[in-house]
Amino acid sequence: MLKIEDIHVYYGAIHAIKGVSFEVGEGEIVALIGANGAGKSTILKTVSGLMHPRSGKISFCGQDIAHAEAYKLLRTGLAHVPEGRRIFLQMTVQENLEMGAYINKEVSQKDLEMVFNYFPRLKERRKQIAGTLSGGEQQMLAMSRALMSHPKLMMLDEPSMGLAPILVDQIFDIIKELHKAGTTILLVEQNARKALQVADRAYVLETGSITLAGTGAELASSDAVKKAYLGG
Amino acid sequence: MGFLQYLINGISIGSVYAIIALGYTMVYGIAKMLNFAHGDVIMVGAYMSFCVTNYLGLPAVVGILVAMVVCTVLGIIIEGLAYKPLRGASSLAVLITAIGVSYFLQNAAQLIWGSAPKNFTSIVTFAPIKLFGGQLTITGEVIITILASVVIMVALTLFTGKTRMGKAMRAVSEDRAAAQLMGINVNQTISMTFAIGSALAAIAGVLLCSTVPTLQPTTGSMPGIRAFTAAVFGGIGSIPGAMLGGILLGIIETMTKAYLSTQFSDAIVFLVLIVVLLVKPAGLMGKVVQEKV
User: Fold this and answer.
1) What pLDDT was estimated at residue B293?
2) Are the C-beta atoms of A4 and A20 separated by less than 8 Å?
3) Which residues contact B217 (CB under 8 A, 6 or more apart)?
4) How far is B84 from chain A (nearest CA, A)?
5) What is the dihedral of CA B147, B150, B153, B155, to 10 degrees?
6) Which of A89, A90, A102 sits opposite B182 (nearest CB)?
């Protein structure tokens, strides 16, 4: 479904992604794990068109998207829940969801019910200004907002960041549910243990290159991964 | 009675500043730039209306409509030619470009219409209302100006609060990258903002010249700066702030001229701005945005 071939991405003179290739097949959960600064978020930004690769290919559902503009990609079924949630803090919960459905012209009641079904807490808070939500609720809103466009592939950047363990479990449960409902998921996580538990396949990223690849279980039991990311 | 008269006149001129300030504040909120050419778009609007009514002899309403259409197109062209290529450039580069556009418009106007002031005919034809046995005069211009600003304010509030396009504008103003991820075309949204701001500038130009009938290529620059002050005063980026800032500035200016000094009125107005910014750096209605780390 998503195929990335040998992309090189730069921040000015800094060579951030050095020839990364990987694939996400339809119906999979694929995790990208790695330390801070390894380039995980940069890869997602490059896929969603917020940045562009200097060389290499990115194709989504057979379409070349390496140089597509970010705002056009959501219409192809590719949604990106960015790092730090990036919800519209001065708008209400409802308005944030409406922005999620921006490409549909009108927000349908059915879609709202769908996301409230996943995250009942948001229903209670729909008139509230998003900036007043707790961190966990903001993450729920960020995911809901992306769901409003019915994406085929959802890219989640650090959904567990800064959340209490119980909320992390809840978010990962929802990721599994979304997956069951047919959404393909590309997950970027620092919480490697959690990510490897849910992932069908995973890639380990170190300073801009992929160093290991395998199924979630394989990587979780690999010595190198255990040592570097799972605390020995 | 004098006080009441000054107050009404102050609100009237303040309403013009407010309409201009709306253009500054919307463009700042969405494109994150100070469009110093905004004042000169006012002047172009006034000239357009002047030409249509004086040279073609058409009614004032047509003049206003033509001015609005021309300014809207002008705003979109200025944004597309001068500012869009600088997206992502340093804000200083954009600011200097805006000043350049301002000079360009003034000089182009001078080439086309000459530097001699034109006598603008007021768009308002009905007689002033006299109250309290003639002690208080409310001119038609005052009534039309205040009405227009109220209508514009209500319309803009509804637009940004209720419509899909208006909400998209707020989303872009808050987080440009996240807005793109929602499928919002940021470039188009910025053009739209310039279009709305410039159409408002055209209205402001006609209202301004109906009150102060001297029209020359520099007509827009001082009101433009005052309106910019008003936008900062009210809290730049905030629509109600621009409205409040404009009206307060108009009142302060008129009162200063009436009771303190005509010559120093601008100095006093800017002094008030300095004091407000010292006490409330984000302006009267500005939001203090906390940077989350």
Assistant:
1) 40
2) yes
3) B43, B106, B107, B109, B110, B113, B115
4) 16
5) -70
6) A102
Backbone region of residue A156 per phi and psi (left: phi > 0; alpha: psi in -120 to 50; beta: other values): beta
- Interhelix angle B186-211/B164-174, rounded to 10 degrees, is 100
Region A208-228: mean pLDDT is 88
| pTM for this predicted structure | 0.89
Answer whether residue B6 is part of any domain. Answer: no
Number of structural domains found in chain B: 1
- What is the per-residue pLDDT across A44-78, written as a single tens digit (0 to 9) for each? 999 999 999 999 999 999 999 999 999 999 999 99
Q: Which residues of chain B have pLDDT under 70?
A: 288-293
- A131 interfacial to chain B (CB closer than 8 Å): no
What's the confidence (pLDDT) of residue B62?
93
In a domain, B69, yes or no: yes
What are B's interface residues with A at a Cβ cutoff of 8 A? 164, 167-168, 170-171, 174-175, 177-186, 287, 292
The residue among B169, B182, B239 with the most chain A CBs within 10 A of its CB, best to mutate, is B182
Predicted confidence at residue B292, as pLDDT, reads: 45
Q: Is residue B249 part of a domain?
A: no
Which range of residues forms the domain containing residue B108?
Answer: 14-117+139-220
In a domain, B279, yes or no: no
Residue B39 C-alpha from the chain's centroid: 7
